[in-house]
Design brief:
6 helices, elongated, 74% helix, 174 residues, mainly alpha
Length: 174
Amino acid sequence: MTTTTQPLLKLLRRIERGLDAIIQPVVFAGMAALIGVITLQIVSRVLFTAVGWTEEVARFLLVWITFLAGTLAFQRGRHIAVTFVVDALPGRLRQIARIVALLIVLAFMITLIVIGYRYMQVQSFQKSASLRLSMTYVYAVMPICAAIMAWYALVDIIELLLGDETTHVQEEPL
């Protein structure tokens, strides 16, 4: 890695940390809200008349939390992977295999952005049953998170191409 590429990598990593600093508290707040909504749902069913909107809010929160937490897991390399073959390869072949895998991930994420955006537009006329919320907001999580994961994959590819061996947090064996 040359000294001319170090500022680029620093900028890319700073942007990643910024995204991480936004997504992490949102996931935490979503989890706290999910716990609160489900608690309200249980208490209201047992003690009072059930509050109708709690099930819908819980479902929407779970969808958003799942996608956002998935982006954090992707950024940290925490998704399930079988890496023993790639890890057994010599240095240069290992790097090529990782780049190819990331290019496939990038292509998938770009496809998911396009499909998610189209689906979001198709469902834009639909309103949720209880809250009368536009379903666009619920389905927007798919292209948003796919774009963030595509960014993470692109940064990883750039790091591998520039020869930086410290690409993100590596998965530690359990």
